[in-house]
Structures are given as C-alpha cells and as structure tokens.
Amino acid sequence: MNLHDAPLGGLRASGRRLAVHLANIDDALSWLEASATALDRLLDDVHRLDDLRDRVTLDGRGPVLGRRVQQVLDHIASVVNTRHGRRRLLGGLGERAVVRRPEGWVFVGDRRPVLRRIGPDLTIRVNLDGMAVLGFDTAADLLNTVERLAGALEQPSGDLAELWAQLDQRAADLVLARRAVRARTQRVRSARHATVPALHSTRAALGTAEQGEAADAELDATREALGRLALAEAVDVSLPSLRDFLA
Amino acid sequence: MERLVEHLTREQGLLEQLLCRLVEAYHLLLADEHRFLVQAADDVLAAAAAVREAELVRATTVESLVPADHPTPPTLEAVARRAGEPYRSILLAQRAALADLLAEVEAASSLARELLEGDPRAVPVGAEP
C-alpha cells in the first residue's frame, strides 16, 4: 500500500461528506424558503380577513362580504396544498394536505417530518407540520373557521366574536410557525457559512494532494524503469573463467 | 598449495555473497519493491566485481603451481590430482562446493533475468502471486 493513500483517502471522504452536507443545506434552504413564502401568503390572507372585520363594523354584513371571505378561503386552500418537489409543503407525502368533505375541511396530509442532515451532528426538520400549523389538532382549524365565517357573514345577524377569536388564534399559530421557520433558516444559513469555506479548503487540499500523488506515481514509474534496467544489466552474471577452472 | 586453499575458501565466501545479492534482487522483483531495485543492482555488481577480482588472484596463484611451459591454464581438478594429501582431498571438496555454488548463482541469475523480462515461469511454485 502506498503510504500517501491514507491522508488522500481521508481528504476525499471529508470532501464527499461536506459536499453532501452542502447539498442538504441548499435543499433545506429551498424547503424553508418555500415554507416561509407559504406562511407569509397565509398570513396575508388572514390580514385580508382582518380588513373585512373592519368593513363589517362599518358597512354591515351581506352576501358580498361572504363571497369575499370565500375567495380568501379558496386561496388559503390553494396555498395549503402547495407542492415542493414531490411533497406537499404542509402535507408531506400525502396526495393533498386538506380536502373539503361533506362534513367540512379535513386534514389528509402526512405529518412525518422531512429531515435534512446539514452537519456532522446537526439534522433539522425542513417541512411544516400542517396539522398543527393549520390548527387541525384544535377544536377550530383555520379552514373550517374561515368557512364558518363566510357563512356567518352572509347571515343578517349572529355572534361573530367567537369566530374572530378563533381566527386570531390561528393567526397567532401562523406567526409562531413563521418565527420557527425563520429561526431554522438562520441555523441552516450559519451551517452554510461554515460548510462552504470548509469544502473549498478541503477541495484545494485535495487538488494539491492529487497533484502530489500524480507526481509521486510518475516518479515511482521512472524509478521502477531505471531500477529494472540497472538490475537487468547487473544480474546477467557470467563467470566463464571460474567455470573453466572447475571443469 | 596452502595459499590456493585459502584463496578458494575466500572465493567460496564471495560467491555466497553474490548468490545472496541475486536472491535478494529476485525477491525484491517478486514483491514489486521497485524503490530498491537500483540499490539491489549496485549490490549485485559489487558482489560480482569482488568475485572477478578474486578470480584474478586465484589465477596468479594457480600459475605459480604449474610448470611455466604448461600449455593451458590448469583446472582445479588437475591441480588437485597433482597435489599430495591432504591437499588433494581438500581441493576436490572445494571444487565440488564451488561448482554447486556456481550452479546456484547461474540459476538465480537466470530466474531474475526471466522475471525482469516478464516470464511467468520465473515465479517458483508456492511463491505469492
């Protein structure tokens, strides 16, 4: 075994590990950015509903407001079912995150975490737990609350306070989820800042080592050729006078 | 005659050294230890040169033991037959030992040359592939 193999093998393994981590980091950032965008759009929708809350106070209820809320609901459902690659941002490997059934909106997504290893001892979840984020693990999830709100606004009277309170709770959950995504994004970016220079320096060291290896191989080949030539001449031992003397 | 016996004893030692160097070179080739081939070649050349130098000294000693008008350089067997005991027996025993050594040297030289030329027959049975 060539003694140069050990450090070069170590550098190659290290370079491969860092490259895998960097690929995972970039994939994680892509996931988290898509998640942040989805949450921003959901929060925008909730803020649009807040604006309608003021309109109700000023202009009263009616079918127009109900339809406006319904449009917001359609948009929310579309965002919630957004894909990222082969998966749903909020629904994992499920066909969809939410569906509308006769009894109302139902979470049908997959809650399993999508994990990415971004460092030797650092693995993070990159997808959102749609069921928790949308409040399907509570008594009043976002979509059914908004749908009930749309129905209630079409009625001339009735208490809206509880629906608005539930909407506020869902908005708070979305804000918390947005913060968590932002914090995770920051951790992944920090990991990227550490990994990129490490990968560059490992590749540079690997390049130098490989050049050294090639030079060593060339030197070995030359040394072998010279050695074989010298030995071919040397081992051609002939002692004719001794042979004659011993005849 | 005693000087001749001493020379032949020394020549026998030098032939053993040459054989040792040839066997070393052969095993270095088998083990692909190319780093040491040049050094091995130097060792073989030095050992062979020592044998040839000893041959010259021995030839001079032998010439002094035969008549000046002797037509050709005498063989060791001829010198032994002319010698009295115990030198005759000693010289004949040295002749046999030297002949065995010379055969081994020539065989080792041949094996090493075949290995250098890439002849697989040069690898003896039981050697590492």
Describe the protein:
The complex is a heterodimer of chains A (247) and B (129). Chain A has helices at residues 5-59, 63-80, 130-133, 142-154, 161-234, 240-246, and strands spanning 83-84, 87-88, 98-101, 104-107, 115-119, 122-125. By secondary structure, chain A is mostly helical. In chain A, strands 1-2 form a two-stranded antiparallel ribbon. Chain A has a two-stranded antiparallel ribbon with strand order 3-4. In chain A, helix 1 packs antiparallel against helix 5 and helix 4 runs antiparallel to helix 5 (161-234). Chain A starts with a helix and ends with a helix. The model of chain A has no long low-confidence stretch (mean pLDDT 88). With 129 residues, chain B is mostly helical. In chain B, helix 1 (2-30) runs antiparallel to helix 2. The A-B interface holds A 220, 223-224, 226-228, 230-237, 239, 241-247 and B 11, 18, 22, 25, 29, 34-38, 40-42, 44-45, 48, 51-52, 55, 58-59, 62, 73, 75-77, 95, 98-99, 102, 105-106, 108-109, 112-113, 116-117.
